[in-house]
Amino acid sequence: VQLVESGGGLVQAGGSLRLSCAVSGLTFGIYDMSWHRQAPGKERELVASITSVGSSTNYADSVKGRFTISRDNVKRTVYLQMNSLKSEGTAVYYCNARFLSQYDYWGQGTQVTVSA
User: Fold this and answer.
1) Could you tell me the pLDDT band of residue 83, with boundaries at 50, 70 and 90?
2) Contacts of 9 (CB under 8 A, 6+ apart)
3) How do 9-12 and 110-115 pair as beta strands?
4) Are 100 and 92 in contact (CB under 8 A)?
5) What is the pLDDT of residue 73?
6) CA nearest neighbour of 78 among 106, 100, 103, 101
7) N or C: which end of the chain has fewer CB within 10 A?
8) 3-state DSSP call for residue 5?
9) Are the C-beta atoms of 10 and 115 separated by less than 8 Å?
10) Residue 89 half-sphere exposure, CB side, CA atoms within 13 Å?
């Protein structure tokens, strides 16, 4: 199983980035997908999640109205569109795939740095 994130980088506050997570080695269409982030010195936190068929999404309060999670089950990819980025968005962003409770996979993460 591989989850490969891409799209991170350096952006000014107020700017946008689009993260992608390409998934292989599992039946993508049955997995709920999510994005998490971990800032220096802080615990990993859930940013956004989307159900297996994309019928339901959920967002952390801190990103509601600015971030959008989506998925393409044909391309086996999940996306995180991040707009109006703030400096507190600086973190390593991780992709997660989960089915039931025992099938739980993580990507290696992609760094997002938001400059003031």
Assistant:
1) very high
2) 17, 111, 112, 113
3) parallel
4) no
5) 94
6) 106
7) C
8) strand
9) yes
10) 32
Which of 67, 97, 69, 99 has the alpha carbon at shortest distance from 83? 67
> 25 Cβ partners below 8 Å, 6+ apart?
1, 2
- 83: which 2 tokens? 């707009």
**AA letter at 73:** N
What tens digit of pLDDT does each residue of 29-41 get?
999 999 999 999 9
In Å, the largest CA–CA distance within the chain is 40
- Phi, then psi, of 88 in degrees rounded to 5: -75, -5
Report the alpha-carbon distance of residue 55 to residue 92 in Å, rounded: 27
3-state SS, residue 60: coil
Angle at 76 between CA 70 and CA 82, to 5 degrees: 30
Provide CB contacts within 8 A for 47, sequence distance 6+. 34, 35, 36, 37, 59, 60, 63, 67, 80, 93
